Amino acid sequence: RRCSACSAEHFPRVDPVVIMLAEHDGRLLLGRQPQYPPRRYSALAGFVEVGETIEAAVAREFHEEAGIEVSNVRYLASQPWPFPSSLMIGCHAEALGEALTVDTTELDDARWFTRDEVAQALSGDPDAAFLPPPPFAIARTLLEQWLGA
């Protein structure tokens, strides 16, 4: 951006964030944060640290938030997110096990959902196991891509 008063150039900061899904035996790991509406579950996410690769950030965040190890991290999609100035980098990983150790300072809960449970939630069924992310969120896109795969 260029200041109209002094012509100085400003380069707004963009903070990279990984937002990711882990899959194990056909089930998907989703979590919920305290500020989410009741029953909402979504993809886990976290900031990429300085000097860290996207793959390393995905593995670190899954380990920190849910206590799982992952492999085969792959990029799926991205989305600018202006709250405050992030670039959401959507990824998928394979979990090496299903046992969870949820960091309750980060998440209220995390659990595995079946393909049928995800489909039911995305269809808007009021009896679904969870409330999915809103349509404008990349987390919703990640769920839709996983379901369609």
3D structure, described in words:
- The chain has helices at 54-66, 115-122, 138-148, and strands spanning 15-24, 27-32, 44-47, 70-81, 86-95, 109-113.
- The protein is of the alpha+beta class and 149 residues long.
- Helix 2 crosses helix 3 (138-148).
- The longest helix has 13 residues, at 54-66.
- The model has no long low-confidence stretch (mean pLDDT 95).
Radius of gyration: 17 Å
Per DSSP E runs of 2 or more residues, the count of β-strands stands at 6
- For the residues shown, what is the average pLDDT? 95
Count of alpha/pi helices: 3
Low-confidence stretches: none
H/E series: EEEHEEEHH
* Fraction of helical residues: 10-25%
Please report the distance between the alpha carbons of the first and last residues.
Answer: 40 Å
Provide the β-strand percentage band.
Answer: 25-35%
Indicate the structural class: alpha+beta
Largest sheet: 6 strands, mixed
The rough form would be described as: globular
Please give a quick description of this structure:
The protein has 149 residues and is of the alpha+beta class. It has helices spanning 54-66, 115-122, 138-148; strands at residues 15-24, 27-32, 44-47, 70-81, 86-95, 109-113.
Summarize this structure as a short list of keywords or feature phrases.
single chain; 149 residues; alpha+beta; six-stranded mixed beta sheet; 3 helices; globular
